[in-house]
Design a protein that fits this description.
Elements: E1 6-8, E2 11-13, E3 16-18, E4 23-24, E5 28-29, E6 34-36, E7 39-42, E8 46-49, H1 57-68, E9 75-77, H2 83-86, H3 89-95, E10 100-103, H4 105-115, E11 121-123, E12 129-131, E13 136-141, E14 151-155, E15 160-164, H5 185-199, H6 203-213, E16 220-223, H7 233-244, E17 249-256, H8 262-276, E18 282-286, H9 292-301, E19 302-309, E20 311-312, E21 315-316, H10 318-329, E22 336-342, H11 349-360, E23 363-364, E24 369-371, H12 377-395
Parallel strand pairs: 8-9, 9-10, 10-11, 15-16, 17-18, 17-19, 19-22, 22-23, 22-24
Antiparallel strand pairs: 1-2, 2-7, 3-6, 4-5, 7-8, 12-13, 13-14, 14-15, 20-21
Bound molecules: MU-OXO-diiron.
Length: 396
Amino acid sequence: MNRNIRLSGNTFYVGVNDRRTQLFENLWPLPEGISYNAYLINDEKTVLIDTVEVSKTEQFIREIRAILGQKPLDYLIVNHTEPDHSGALIALLKEFPGLCVVGNRVTFRFLDGFYGDCPHKKIVEHGDVLSTGEHTLRFIATPMIHWPETMMTFDETDGILFSGDAFGSFKTLDGGVFDDEVDLSAYEDEMRRYYSNIVGKYGKNVQRAYELLRDVPIKMIASTHGPVFRKDPGWVLSRYDAWSQESTRPGAVVIYGSMYGHTEEMADHTARKLKEFGVPDVLVFDASKTHPSYILSAVWKYSAVVLASPAYNNDLCPSVKTVIDKFLERKMKSRYVAVIGTATWSGGGVKTLKELTGILGWDLVGDPVEAKYGASEKDLAQCATLAKTLAERILK
Ligand code: FEO
């Protein structure tokens, strides 16, 4: 097979799609799959940039051979060692015995740990260059996007930034590989979900990378997941910039747990009132039904959250706690937050929610509303009052 997907003169896309894996990192749903992108420069010295997940190795090597023929592969640049990108390493070392693996010191600590010692290696540092004939490749250290060893490679000859996971997305490349060949609006939600789930904790490091990239004349961005941006790299640069700063837009995400519908009724009533009071976007999630991956992505987008929980074993509804843990893990920036719920005989849900908003450092708006059993007219009226206060904060 030779798909001949050319980024520029002698630089090719040699990535693969994965529609079988259900959970990325065995954690995050992949209903639309994912691509593992790798790139091959067929220069005087041949260079592969990153590999693919181990299950795709055979297809991957066939693709490389289709371009190289019997030429050897001289270098493998490992921008990121996570096994979705390094999984084909052992097979590549067998296929190309002289292959020199290029990475930084931390890269090799990780590769040694995962796969054993590479027989030929070249250790590079930030700013080093590798000349391959026509191409000059410069290495840019971008640690903690999102692992300690992560780096980017900039092809100074063609202006292509091989960015590793940065600027990546969930969702396979279905025929179209480049931004001008796909409907980017179909990728945006999956890209934000990818960002918030995988990279989100490291926004400060992403911002540091923007500083490093400020004077780099980028013509094309080639990430390890999702489309290659050759027409408009600014499209993805602007989005990752906003997400890494957690620039939110006015709107509210209502997240509830509910065993028998009483807390759900309060959540729905509050959502309706938020809308009546002018909040442009209101989303409602049942935390027991929707995977936290999606709720996290929605909260990344909007300025306010309503947390709603019944009491469960004198505490919070476990599925709501699971979602809040995701916010805590990522040290998410402050949101306006309102708290509602039901107590039955013990209480505990609303109390714990209030405590957690304090730990999050979020801006608790109004007084929490806690119904005793089912929501009375008085409880619903209090939800409406709380929604009005929250809407005023969102819209101010
Ligand atoms: Fe796509 Fe961090 O691996």
